[in-house]
Amino acid sequence: MIYLDNNATTKLAPEVLEAMLPWMVDHYGNPSAGYRFGKEARRAIDTAREQAAALINAHSPEEIIFTSGGTESNHLALASALSWLPPDSTFVSSTIEHSVIHEWLGAQAEKERLSWEQVSVNEDGQLHLDEWSEQLSRSESRFATLMWANNETGVLLDVEKAAAIAESQGAYFHSDAVQAVGKVPVDVQSHPMQSAAISGHKLHGPKGIGALWVNRHSRLHPVLLGGGQENNRRSGTENVAGIIGLGKAAELAQAHIARREEQQGLRDRFESALLGEIEGVEVNGTTEPARRLPNTSNLYFPGVDGEGLLILLDQAGICCSPGSACSTGAVTPSRVLTQMGYSRARAKSSVRFSLSHLTTEDEVTEAITLIKEAVKKLQIVLPTGSRVVGPRR
Amino acid sequence: MIYLDNNATTKLAPEVLEAMLPWMVDHYGNPSAGYRFGKEARRAIDTAREQAAALINAHSPEEIIFTSGGTESNHLALASALSWLPPDSTFVSSTIEHSVIHEWLGAQAEKERLSWEQVSVNEDGQLHLDEWSEQLSRSESRFATLMWANNETGVLLDVEKAAAIAESQGAYFHSDAVQAVGKVPVDVQSHPMQSAAISGHKLHGPKGIGALWVNRHSRLHPVLLGGGQENNRRSGTENVAGIIGLGKAAELAQAHIARREEQQGLRDRFESALLGEIEGVEVNGTTEPARRLPNTSNLYFPGVDGEGLLILLDQAGICCSPGSACSTGAVTPSRVLTQMGYSRARAKSSVRFSLSHLTTEDEVTEAITLIKEAVKKLQIVLPTGSRVVGPRR
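The joint structure predicted for all components is written out below.
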């Protein structure tokens, strides 16, 4: 198997499993307990909090709130703001946010709990900053949210400028940094930000754990109440092993980030080979490789049915994605790609490949061959430019 | 170490860890993915859903929604109902609900999003059914929530009658079954219920995973939106290993429940020894052993500072709790005990011991000796009946 779907989820690092196991086997005490057996879990959580804080250069570990994942982290930032912002507030997002944010804002807007303005992106997948500025200059715009990197195209959004504009207009600025953290440097002190969402399983940590970074000067109204865990900001018995795993993954990620040029080199080789050897292939999103995550390649294969290609590639042992893993099963083309101005036909002929530091040179070489073969099979069946569904076998 | 705090959390069963490991190591695919490597995770989740459904005799596995734990499960049931019930609805609970439910209802009532009526309990810890009936007979009472078993005293609430009354009044009935599931039979078809909360780590499953059972005829408005996982009822990449672990724990729990009389026998021996050999010791909650969880013993040690006793017992290697683990650090006496009519002094002189099927005869014998010694030390220092804080060393 050649796993090229690391934006969907990643392989747990062996060091992470090793760090987690003691907390799954022998040291099972409840961190809220008063006895030593519980306090040792409490201390281990403190260490993990430091590791997570260090990865994103938080001011202090206390700014980290552990959650059950990226979805809950983003939800917590949004729901918290909704609870303390004035009732007539406008929430400003981009049109290409992850469905977590997109659907939540849509649902609240429908119930008239907030106003929602979406700022469009250009064909490169980059935010229209003038439009962003214009939306935020309206006095009722009090919450701005922009992803750090897009999950489908890997495009790195201009968080620096977007955050500065939000600050100048007095708006709260949240970033869904789930796809960026662990792949590129994310420094929450470098921009004027209030919160950022992190997911464990996107950076070779476990599934079912995430974190919300909240600026120590920002308000946070909890959603889950009860036991008062996480300094009263997220109740519920701590997922101790998961937290330890996220901490360890955060520590290990520093090395991967430092070597991201190697990662990008491998991705670029993969991408160049397909662009050069299959006629008509194009990158979705900016063609500047450095303006994208170093691991992501979202490619358009003209005249090839994306779903059909995925099936052939699955048979050949390659895991990749038609966009976001979450949207599988849905027949609609990617919202991200269509919002970038691409046609529905192009969106349906596009496939996302996402590498990791575990991806080898040999795997990339083999993947190139297998993808070329699969595309050729589909192109034999279908005339170039056609949008008929590919073979099903 | 003698671990007598199984109502706080339990040791992960080795079989559960074994079931989880493949999904943490090799089979890390995203269950939402379209390729085989993802679909195998999807199928494993389906099996776990069947296992969880079987434990509580759900009508079908689809009634199980996996969450991040008991706190989220309870929150989901409550928040869902709040979103679709009419604005003037009254939520009726008991005075001894877990803080998850208690604090959430309190917070919503404070914001005037709902009315909240609490029904009191008697000295046995049992619900006043006449009061319950009276509250629910008011037309605006549309949501009733009652825990299946109390976490501090182990008292089994009269869910059967409470649910029947709620049904007769047309109210939604939710039960926080977190402490009961895995210890006693919980059959969601035996009473007219709409939803029930389950936690993995309370039944020798992993921390960070739980489930909400929702009757197939009941409405459920999701809180976490986005990827559409859990049949659009709880978005977020699935905690695959955690779910597999909860499933396996649910399967194993059937055997423990079948042997609950043995469990109760051991608990009764423990309790009788302390009642008989230390002067003045009394049980908090009903003295009918069968009306309590078979593993729980909440005891009053007259004249003994509970916190001091916990410190001595910790030094002696015994883990137990001053009430609910979640409330550690707080100086207020247990709300549950004071709501049962006990004095603050009694609450502060009370300790909860909770066994599991892993607790051995020898451990119980040794614990009895060590508890007697510790109590004697504290009683030497303090005259009987005094409420002065015990020695701190």
